[in-house]
Amino acid sequence: MNSPLSVLKSSPGLDSCSPLRLRLFRWRQWLAEAHAGKSVLSIADQAVVSGTNFVTSVLIGRVCGKEQLGVYALALTVVLFARGLQQQVIFAPYMVYCHRRRGLALRAYSGSIWVHNAALALLTLLAMAGMTVASLLGWGPAELRSAMPSMLLIGAFYLLRDFVRQTALARMEMIAVTAIDVTVATVQIGGLLLLAWLGELTVARALLMVGAGCLVSSGGWLLARRQVFLVVRTRIWRDWRHNWSFARWALASHLVGSTAPIAIPWLLTFASGPEATGMFSACSTIIGLAWVFVGGLTNLAVPRASRAFAEGGRDKLVRALMITAVLFAIPVLSFIGFAALAGDWLALLIYGDEYTGCGPVVVTLGCWMLANTMGITAGAGLWSIERPSANLRADVVTAIVTLGMTAALVFPFGVYGAALGMCCGTAAGSVVRIATLAWIFRHWPTEVSR
Fold first, then answer.
1. Running DSSP on this structure, what letter comes out for residue 140?
2. What is the chain's percent helix, strand, coil content, to nearest 5?
3. How far apart are CA 198 and CA 76, in angstroms?
4. Which listed site, 2, 47, 59, 331, has its alpha carbon 20 to 30 Å from 204?
C-alpha cells in the first residue's frame, strides 16, 4: 500500500506544489503517528496525578505550615528514591523488551518481573526499616522523626502501586493506568480533606493517607488482571540475567542522576532550615501544573520510542523523537511565559502570604523543566536502541554541575540558588545526552538500524 506522501508525489500538479506544502504534509503525517488517543489519555492521567500531588501539597502547606511542608518533602525523597530503584532495575528493561514478546511468552516474562519486584521491594523495605530505627535513635533531622514510621508503612504500598501502574504503562494500557490513579486520588484527597476538617491533619497522617490510596488501587488492579502474570520458575533467573545487562546501566544512571534532586532539599534544610525547603516544595508543586502535559508525554516516551524502533528502525525512531520534542516544548514554553507574568501572584494565591518571593524561582524551575524534557527525549532514544550505558555520562555531568552550582549558590541566594543550580546542571546533562545520541546515529548507522 502506498503512503499518503507517495500518493501526493505521484499526483498531477506536483511540480507546482511548494516545498512548504510538502513539509507541512510531512509534519501532519508525523503528528498522526503520535497515537493521539493514548497521548490524550496519558495527559488526562497525568492531570489526575499532578492534581493529587498539588492538592496534597496545598493542604499540608496551608494547614500545617511551611516547616511541616518541608518535612513532608524530605520524607518523600526517601520513598521516591526507593521507587526510582524499582523503576530502573525492574521497569527500565521491561518497557523495552515487553514489546518484543507476545502471548504466553509475554505472560511468562511479566511473571518473572513480578518475582523480581517482590525480591527488590523486600530488600528496599529492610533498608527503610533500618533508616527508621536510626532516626528514632536520634540520627537525622529531629523534625523528621515523627514521620519515619509512617514513611516505612507507606513504602510497601507505594512500591506495590507503582508496580501495577508501570506494568500497565509499559503495555500502554492507559485506561487501566488512569483508573489506578483516579482511585489513588479519591482515597488520598478524601482522607486528607476529612483530616483537615477534623483538625487532625499532620505529616505522619498525610503519609498514611498516601499509603491507603496506593493499597486500594493496586489491590483492585491485581485482582482484575492477575492473568497478566504467569510465573515460570525456570525463567525467573534467566530473565533476571537478561534484564540485568540493561538494568545495571539504567540503575547506575539513576543513582548518579538522583543524587542532586535528593541532596537539594537536604542542602536547603542545612543552609536555611525546613522553611526554605517548604518554599522550594511549594514552587516545585506550582511547576507541577505544567507537568500535567509534560508528565503525560513522558509516560509514553520510552514505550513509544521502543515500539517505533522495533517497527521501523532508526528512521521511524528519529521521527518519533522529533514529535516528542515538539510536543514537550509547546506546553513548557507557554508555562514559562505565564510564570514570568504571574509566578509570584500564583504562589500567594495558592499558598498564602507566607510564600512571597516565589516568582523568580518558579520561572527558573520552568527553564529547568524545558532542559529536562529535551534530555528525556534523547534518553528515550538511547534506551530504545539498548544503549542505557550512554546515559551515564550525561547523568554524571548533571550531578557534578548541579551539586557544584547549588553548593555555591544556596548559601548566598537560598531557594533561588537551588533552583538555578538545578537548571544549569540539567541543561548541561541534556546537551551531553543529545550529543551522544546524535553521535551514535552518525557513526554507527548499521548498529541502530532495524
1. S
2. 90, 0, 10
3. 24
4. 47
pLDDT at 180: 84
**pLDDT value at position 5?**
36
Helix (H, G, I), strand (E, B) or coil at 36: helix
Amino acid 343: pLDDT: 64
Burial 394-404 (b: 16+ CB within 10 A, else e): bbbbbbbbbbe
* pLDDT value at residue 2: 40
Separation of alpha carbons 410 and 414, rounded Å: 4
- CA dist., res. 256 & res. 432, Å (int): 15
Q: What is the CA radius of gyration of the chain?
A: 23
User: CA dihedral defined by 49, 54, 56, 60, rounded to 10 degrees?
Assistant: 160
- Three-state DSSP at 102 gives coil
Distance CA 231, CA 103 (A): 14
Burial class (CB in 10 A: 0-12, 13-18, 19+), 126: exposed
Predicted TM-score of the model (pTM): 0.58
Contact 379, 433 (CB under 8 A): yes
Rounded distance between C-alpha atoms, residue 357 and residue 279, angstroms: 9
Around Cβ 437, how many Cβ atoms within 10 Å?
Answer: 25
The amino acid at 23: R
Chain mean position to CA 87: 10
Neighbours of 348 (CB within 10 A): 16
Q: Report pLDDT for 147.
A: 67
Query: How confident is the model over 345-376, as pLDDT tens digits?
Result: 777 777 766 777 777 888 888 888 888 888 88
Those residues of the chain that have pLDDT short of 70 are 1-43, 135, 138, 140-147, 257-258, 260, 292, 295-297, 299-300, 343, 352-353, 444-450
Write out the three cell numbers for 86.
524499582
Kindly give, in sequence order, each residue whose CB lies less than 8 Å from that of residue 230, ignoring residues fewer than 6 positions away. 104, 107, 108, 110, 111
User: Is 433 in contact with 257 (CB distance < 8 Å)?
Assistant: no
Max Cα–Cα distance, the chain, nearest Å: 82
> Hey, is 33 helix, strand or coil?
coil
State the CB neighbour count (10 A cutoff) for residue 67: 16
How is residue 313 written as a grid cell? 528502525
Residue 440: CB atoms within 10 A of its CB come to 18
